[in-house]
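Review box. Two proteins, two foldings.
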Amino acid sequence: MGMIAGNNATLQVGAQSDFSTAVAPTVQVEFVSESLDEKHNLITPDQITGKRSVDRLDEAGIKVEGGVELVANPANIGILLAAAFGAEADPAAVDSSAVYDHVFTPMSAAAASSLPKLTMVVDRIQAVKGYVGCKINRMSLSAGVQDYLKAGFDFIGRNEATDALESLSSGEKRPFMFTDGNLQFNDTDYDEVLSLSVDFVNNLENDLYVLNGSNYMVEIEPQRREITAEVEALYSSDIETLRESYYKGGTKCSLEVTFTSTEEVLTGKYYTLTVNMPNCYITGNPVNVSGPDRIRTRISLTATEQNGESPITVTLRDGQATKHIA
């Protein structure tokens, strides 16, 4: 039967130029789990035939759905951030060095705008499958006490096909950890944080089939983006002030979280990942006593776009001089 175990699986990713055409992967991504699958919608005419069951099923639509979970590190997150947001600025050198800031923002609507599409190649030992035309519908980042920064990506795509791996290797960079983090509300540090999460949803079109003689979807694009965050923290005077002024007061605030690795890109310059949401509203901040333990609270936030500022900006600092998706 052989040893067909997930420990030996491989995930590789490449950026496509055409929605229906697979490409060779360019990046190998360390991952925790994946659930990519080709979905077939079989329909029946529901006609009365005098038979004991339905008399036929016909193919009506084919698409890919599923996700990838990973521990975020500087080598595996860049191409996925570029694919999730759609807009990546030209890399900016830090202090004229070979260290670069990659700035990702949600792409703007325009006739020529299109969210990047990926070929996701998964080696499951028994077979290697490529998932073509995959676009990221949802991205989540989360971290908690005594843990790594986790990232999740949910995809909608076109089709599955037999594929092959390229000769690539993993970046093997140190993952970002919860203890690497610094969280600020309105440029002020809040250090009694227990966990945090950020969700970015593209609200991709789905089941977009047209009268073109094919059971495959045509290319799908984002609709209005939804961007939320949640912070769990110990209840304190600072949290009470935040609650009174920004939750009950209905005033917007800013949230910024930066993870700074202990691993250097160059001497004295470290890998970092920063999430900035400059115009947030606190939509929930309950404070309750649930027992004899320390009182905690959860702060729920929703990002908005105001005054031309991006509702969310993610910056990855690494040693790559080119865009993660050109």
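Next protein.
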Amino acid sequence: MNDHLKINDLATRKQQEPAVENPIDVARRKNDSFQPLDYRQLPGQGMNMTTDQLNTFFKNMRENNTHTNNMHNGYLIVHVPQNQTMSFNASSALFNEKVIFVVDGSMNTNSNFPRAGNDANTMIYVGPSGSLGNGFGSQGDFKGLIYVHEDNKNNWTFQWGTSRIDGAILAKGSGSLNWNNGNTVTISRNEDVLAPFGCFVTGGSGTPIDNGTVIITDDTKPITIEAAGIFFR
């Protein structure tokens, strides 16, 4: 056990890493009328959004019953196309919605990704060309799954506040993952959080994502791992 990282005892993981399919492709197979929501339809055309603006967008969406064709299993699917950039601004508000971001372009958070409330659940699917920029993270908690496609060659710099990541990170790309972090980040696998994304696993039908291999890429950062199922490559 690495005391510096505060890693609880983890048995060697021998299960095959799960392959997660692009949620847009899955949703289109299930619903001919489905179309992902282009990120530029979000507040500020998807640039420098605050959590308050996103909360208002989701509130209006529910009240007016809009964007129903952009939904899959109760999750709004937002697409960031190649050569496009989505970005966030700082906010102390909590985000309690269910959303899937499919990132083929860039998502720049500058450590300002919305802070998760108790009811939040987010999947960030980073395609082969996608990027989370330098400094992806939040000043609060994150609930959900961050998945990086195996053909993605970008390097990653994660920058979090004193945060809890409740769910899993599966970074299957060939780029390096650097935790540029001076704060303690607690990462805990949560089956309830992951279960809704099981329908995107190859051969899946709504069951929790299987365990995979745990590889720590940087042993100098104060990362706490509480349970198996957090994946770095």
